[in-house]
Structures are given as C-alpha cells and as structure tokens.
Amino acid sequence: PVATNGNGLNVNKDLSVKTAGRGQAKTLAEMENQWESFTFAPIRESQVSRAMTRRYFADLDTYAESDIVIIGAGSCGLSTAYMLGKARPDLKIAIIEAGVAPGGGAWLGGQLFSAMVMRKPADTFLNDVGVPYDDEGDFVVVKHAALFTATLLAKVLAFPNVKLFNATAVEDLITRPAPTQQDPKAVRIAGVVTNWTLVAMHHDDQSCMDPNTINAPLVISTTGHDGPFGAFSVKRLVSMQQLPALGGMRGLDMRSAEDAIVKRTREIVPGLIVGGMELSEVDGANRMGPTFGAMALSGVKAAEVALAVIEE
Ligand code: AHZ
C-alpha cells in the first residue's frame, strides 16, 4: 500500500508499524541501555534516492554557471577554495576533483610517513584554518597530514557557496576567441568540460560518451605535477597552442622550489590561473617533495589573484 505524507512523498503505510524507538532518544546519553527497544526512524528506499539525486541535480543546475571553477582538490586547490569561500560568500565556486577522495597527495607527509612539514610563514595559514602543530623554529609539523587535509576539507565543504563534484574529471577547457595584436589565435578560458572519471577512463574502449560543461569566467587549475591526471590544464594549453611548450618539472630542491611556486602563481592565459605543483611543469621549477607550505600559500595567492581578476 502506498500513501502520501505531508511532503507529497510516497510512503509505505507499513512504515508506521515499527516506530517504537522513533522520536524517543534526543541525545546519545538517552540511548544508553535502551538498545533492546531501539529502532531507527522509518524510511522508504525512494526517499533516500530522492534526497541524494534532488540535491545533486539541483547542484548541477546551480553550478552550470559558476563564478569560479577550481580543478583539483589537493592541498593547493583546497587552500584556494578555503580563501575564496571565506572571502566571498556571494560567489558560486565549483571544485572538480577526479578522485573519489579529495585531498590529492596531502593525506600523508612523504614516503607514506604521517607527519606533514610546513615551512614558515605557512604556519599563518594553519592558524587561520585552525590546524594544530609543533613549532620547530623555521618550520612547523602537523602530527598527521590527514589532520591538515580533513580540517581544511571540513571547512571548505561547510561553505554554502562551494560545491565539490568529486569522481568527476575535467576533460577539456571551454575557450572563446580573444585575439591580441601579438597573437590573433589567442583565446580566453570560459569554463570546463567534465565527465564522470570512470567514464573519462574508458574513452578508448567504449563508443563516444559525450561530456557535460560548466561555464565560468575564471578557472583555477591546481592539478599537480605531470601524471595520469596531473598538469592537465597546462598540457592542454600547449596542445591548443596557447603555450609554446612546457618547461618540465626539475629535480628536488626544497630551498628554491617553494618560493618559486608561490611567486609564479598567476593567471597564465586570460581566465586561467594556475597554482600548486602544476606550475612546476609550466616554468620548469624544481620539486620540493614532502614540504607543503608552498601548496597552502600558492592557494592563498591564487585566491588573491582571482579576486583581483574578478574585480577588474
Ligand atoms: O586527482 C587530482 C588531485 O586530487 C586532481 N586532478 C588532476 N587532474 C584532474 C582533472 N580533473 C579533475 N583533469 C584533477 N581533477 O588534482 C589534484 C591535485 O592534487 P595534488 O596533491 O597532486 O597537487 P597539489 O599541487 O595540490 O599538491 C602537490 C603536492 C606535492 S607534490 C610534490 C613533489 O613531488 O615535489 N610536493 C608536493 C608538496
């Protein structure tokens, strides 16, 4: 038997039978020693489906026109989202992350060790987000990289104006002609082309599976150094002849690499800001390995550049 509840949802009348525990316990303490009579509030499977799909498709609708798209939810992308979400609650910010788990390479410090090192002055970012650390003089140590990523992620996800679409890959960039005197074929970036990552991984063994799109006047790419998904946007800029070539990431030099990444965080072509390790591929900067201050502060700078571009 199917009935309609006050919200217009179809509910099964049978649900009214087993509601013994419903509405009884208001706190966890009230549940103590009540497990024999315990039941969850009733549910019908379609309610669960609708609770998820209604929100997801509303989000797809809302963010089809975004103010800013951030590609990649690694340490740099999340730091960028944190700064932007906090500074501008009026902007619609979509984060597109290819992996199921956001966080990129920031769940561990280095060589699968737990602790995460950040050189000063990146401690200022940790203070702002509220991540505790040990102060070792010129650098600080978060006891587990996952504590940094989980705290940052929780703050970013709580912003009402930020939506994370994970398990979703950016497959291409949307462009519009923006000819200049030096380059009549110049373009500006006007959004991203997306697909479920599992679909994106099967273009060579399935027939055409067309993508979806998000329009945005500003895209911030933080896809990390080259790899199966990494350095995505800057490689595409080369193949669409908007960059002559990539410099290629150089060997590890912690002393110079971190300064270089922060200093070079910038708008590379109109409408596309690049931050984090993706930048090392553009300019041929060194890698820094397991020290993450540059990722946080590149995110801070990417957000600052983005706000300046938007206000232009
Ligand atoms: O899944 C990727 C990861 O979570 C995601 N990503 C890459 N390509 C994508 C695409 N669409 C959607 N086409 C995509 N998402 O981007 C995220 C990049 O995170 P990351 O942690 O690899 O990059 P980051 O620049 O934020 O941090 C780099 C961390 C490193 S690597 C390194 C070294 O080797 O020297 N040192 C540091 C600190």
Automatic annotation (TrEMBL):
UniProt name for this protein: Thiamine thiazole synthase
Subunit structure, interactors included: Homooctamer.
Keywords, ordered alphabetically: Cytoplasm, Iron, Metal-binding, NAD, Nucleus, Thiamine biosynthesis, Transferase
Top-level division of the source organism's lineage: Eukaryota
Residues modified as 2,3-didehydroalanine (Cys): C208
One Pfam family from the record: Thi4
The protein's role, per its UniProt record: Involved in biosynthesis of the thiamine precursor thiazole. Catalyzes the conversion of NAD and glycine to adenosine diphosphate 5-(2-hydroxyethyl)-4-methylthiazole-2-carboxylic acid (ADT), an adenylated thiazole intermediate. The reaction includes an iron-dependent sulfide transfer from a conserved cysteine residue of the protein to a thiazole intermediate. The enzyme can only undergo a single turnover, which suggests it is a suicide enzyme. May have additional roles in adaptation to various stress conditions and in DNA damage tolerance.
Gene Ontology CC entries for this record: cytosol; nucleus
Cofactor detail note: Binds 1 Fe cation per subunit.
Family, similarity comment: Belongs to the THI4 family.
Enzyme Commission number(s): 2.4.2.60
Binding site for substrate: C76, E97, A98, G105, V170, D210, H225, M277, R287, M288, G289
Main location: cytoplasm
Reaction(s) this enzyme catalyzes, per UniProt: [ADP-thiazole synthase]-L-cysteine + glycine + NAD(+) = [ADP-thiazole synthase]-dehydroalanine + ADP-5-ethyl-4-methylthiazole-2-carboxylate + nicotinamide + 3 H2O + 2 H(+)
Cofactor(s) in the UniProt record: Fe cation
Signal peptide: none
GO molecular function: cysteine-dependent adenosine diphosphate thiazole synthase activity; iron ion binding
Modifications the protein undergoes after translation, according to the UniProt entry: During the catalytic reaction, a sulfide is transferred from Cys-208 to a reaction intermediate, generating a dehydroalanine residue.
Keyword Nucleus assigned: yes
Cellular compartment(s): Cytoplasm; Nucleus
GO biological process: thiamine biosynthetic process; thiazole biosynthetic process
Cross-referenced SUPFAM superfamilies: FAD/NAD(P)-binding domain
Enzymatic class: transferase
